[in-house]
């Protein structure tokens, strides 16, 4: 469905009608969670970041990170790295794994990544940005996209210049998280800075940072003039927010909040997906994180979490979660209970 707020755009062979993008989040937006998010109207998904040197090693974990579903297209595999040799090898490898686009990460603020002059540290070296992007664009037949922050720190913000370098290097879509590297996740994303990138280029610009609901998505679009919105942390434990934002973008009636049964359907499907994809040992670790988020703000969640976090047996975890989520009944949220 075409969005009345955002007209959509073409990216390679794909028409992105509803430019609602799921943010790549390492350890979170794996295939099990992307499958859940996709059904709430996401128009484009991106895998977790894959370090280009890890690809070189062909580890099993890396292969799992790049596993794609037949029905999740269009999907980008995200690559990080600063050595054109490794990044282009990784891009070709990602193309071979069925990616529709290659997304280059120059936004990651994590020290380990920045130390290798990758992620957001690259924003300090504009010549290196151009070298890496041009090399990747030349190495694959797929559209290459880029995700950045607005600069290294407040004094050296170069979002508009990086946007122009990206466009000149053949990048076909740019995502801007409206924070500098120095800000990490503090303060509020600067949506006007996303607008500075938008004004500098004619490729589609996706705005990212601090969208938490339909109202904030609308406000970011108004302030930045972006062509699409990317949502990250707000989706943790709450994929339903994507349905709300999707409705705002398409002019549809917002969906009602999930009932207890609907909530459990999603949580249990997510848990099943985790076990099938990662095996129960790894799934148990990931489930603790996701279930904590799914239960945030819900009635009796503190007691439930204390019980759940103790469990190690997968079936016991499933039973405990089913008992809690299905037992929530009508007043699911703490604040509703207080108001009732
Ligand atoms: C736990 C976590 C992991 C992340 N991993 C990645 C990643 O692998 N690649 C990337 O480009 N951004 C990553 N990000 C950044 C998000 O994609 C997004 O830019 C950021 O969270 C701001 O958007 P939000 O306010 O909607 O969360 C990560 C963020 C979080 C919180």
In short, what is this structure?
The chain is of the alpha/beta class and 340 residues long. The chain has 15 helices and 10 strands.
| CATH fold annotation of the largest domain | TIM Barrel
By CATH, the architecture of the largest domain is named Alpha-Beta Barrel
Q: What structural class do the secondary elements suggest?
A: alpha/beta
Distance between the ends: 38 Å
CATH superfamily of the largest domain: Aldolase class I
Query: What sort of overall outline do the alpha carbons produce when their principal axes are compared?
Result: globular
Average pLDDT confidence is: 93
How would you describe this protein?
The two termini are 38 Å apart. It is built from 15 helices and 10 strands. The chain has an 8-stranded parallel β-barrel, surrounded by 7 helices. The chain has a two-stranded antiparallel sheet with strand order 1-2. The protein has 340 residues and is an alpha/beta fold. It has helices spanning 31-38, 52-57, 60-65, 84-96, 111-115, 126-139, 159-168, 191-200, 214-224, 240-250, 260-278, 280-295, 301-310, 314-326, 334-339, and strands spanning 9-11, 14-16, 20-22, 44-51, 75-80, 101-106, 144-148, 173-177, 205-208, 228-231. The chain has 2 domains: 9-250, TIM Barrel (Alpha-Beta Barrel), CATH 3.20.20; 260-339, Non-ribosomal Peptide Synthetase Peptidyl Carrier Protein, Chain A (Orthogonal Bundle). The structure holds flavin mononucleotide. Flavin mononucleotide (FMN) is lined by residues 23-26, 28, 48-49, 78, 105, 107-108, 147, 177, 208-211, 231-234.
